């Protein structure tokens, strides 16, 4: 477990984020091969990876797989599943299965782009804070404190309501309130790695700071970052679904698993038209679960103590 | 120790100021203003301008911020744009139900997570361990609103055992039992989500402690396994959990938006949604601020509890 020292404490705001292994380990040549070997031994992680790949394929091939155009209104409204519409139609008469397939694009796009943005930003900030220390570190840490004090979903909802909800805003706002967790994680790793002899040797050899940071320190800090990013994708997908469910995320007619569940707040839909909300809820569960399993597998694989 | 507490409080002050500034910035980014939104377009322009002037909407940004901050220092959060009631009163009415829900869920979540996590650690790599780890993943991966809707469908609609939502039965005689019946489903949903996350922390922490020398000593002395587990191991394993529980507070408050919407629970989450729909900026600012304040205070307490619980930790 990490030291309970205040700055090292993991106060990350993301749901499942395990950051208990911030010890520095030297990545040796061929380390990725070893990590992969350990990863494939984790059955659930492999299953999660397969499901994730299938989901990515679904998103890419959506126009080919989907039986209907997700926005086309067919001539049956709120129809129960049948041979024609495997998962029935919604209240406007659109094919639920096709919407479900196209919504995969929204979820994965929001998940991956959000995480790519904030992990890059958070990593740079965290490395700078740890490496330069002093007042810069102090200010950066206080800024992360500020962002992390806001209750995650609540503040995001307010910001999106102010800026207007479209996919770009959702991604930017989720990223804006997610980077501090990564910054703190990276800062902790870099602080630990900086104490290692080989980094001191690099400094003694007179290498410039960027070279030491990016060539020497970063490769050894990358494990926890990737693990954190994987859990982050799952968390971002969940957040987008929650926002869209509340009507503050992706707006209809664009299909999102979250906004497909919105209608289920009415008792008639909930009771009489389960095909409108059970499939999309299940898709969120399966996607988030699969990605979390991958994250768990990566964490075990990177932690050579196991 | 006292010095540490004082230092932590002093650090919290600039953070709190920063929070107020971010909060104010967010709201000021909003296009349009409530005067234009709510007043009949046929109202003469002069009247609108007077109203704007009255609400201070024409002042420069920092002047508006400092005015708001000064009021804040006097415990004033302004007046709601939609109900004209003081924001403090509106939030005050809603805070109780949210805190009730959050604390009950935290208790339920931990009551599940601690025994399950401990048993998983003791029986590491058994079927029980695998099953519980799997379930904990499902608990963290299931969307709150999906689980909530599922529960409403099963327990409120199919079996009619529980009310679909709200905090009390309308026109009912009230009482504790009525409240509990309304709390069961939302508390269960939040509790499951919390337990799912905490099981893994408890398990990891317990495994860590089980390897310690002092535990082997306790076993070697011939102490009863029950005492070794519950007295020597569990107490030490729970120390890191304090921090993790502290981390849960911002998630619980933020998550209240979803859970209160689904179960029509009259707390600050529901108020947030209502205020967003009516563009009630003073209330939204107040809500974010109060929630952030609660988070800061709980973080502070978490750190203090932590250092009190583990005497090995020294703060310089």
UniProtKB/TrEMBL annotation, chain A:
Gene Ontology cellular component list: plasma membrane
TM segment ranges: 44-66, 108-134, 146-163, 169-186, 217-238, 275-295
PROSITE patterns assigned to the protein according to its UniProt record, in alphabetical order: ABC_TM1
Topology within the bilayer: Multi-pass membrane protein
Keyword Secreted: no
SUPFAM superfamilies cross-referenced by the UniProt entry: MetI-like
Database matches in InterPro entries: BP-dependent_transpt_permease, MetI-like, MetI-like_sf, Oligopeptide_permease_AppC, OppC_N
Organism lineage: Bacteria, Bacillati, Bacillota, Bacilli, Bacillales
Family assignment from sequence similarity: Belongs to the binding-protein-dependent transport system permease family.
Compartments reported by the entry: Cell membrane
Keywords, alphabetical: Cell membrane, Membrane, Transmembrane, Transmembrane helix, Transport
Main localization category: membrane
Protein name in UniProt: Peptide ABC transporter permease
Native source species: Paenibacillus radicis (ex Gao et al. 2016)
UniProtKB/TrEMBL annotation, chain B:
CDD domains per the UniProt record, alphabetical: TM_PBP2
Annotated membrane topology: Multi-pass membrane protein
Occurrences of domain ABC transmembrane type-1 (ranges): 95-302
Chief place where the protein resides: membrane
InterPro entries, per database record: BPD_transp_1_N, MetI-like, MetI-like_sf
GO biological process entries: transmembrane transport
Localization annotation: Cell membrane
Membrane spanning stretches: 9-27, 99-122, 134-159, 179-196, 237-263, 283-306
Alphabetic keyword roster: Cell membrane, Membrane, Transmembrane, Transmembrane helix, Transport
SUPFAM superfamilies associated with the record: MetI-like
Region forming the signal peptide: none
Entry GO CC: plasma membrane
Record Gene3D superfamilies: MetI-like (1.10.3720.10)
Pfam families: BPD_transp_1, BPD_transp_1_N
Family note: Belongs to the binding-protein-dependent transport system permease family.
Name recorded for this polypeptide: Peptide ABC transporter permease
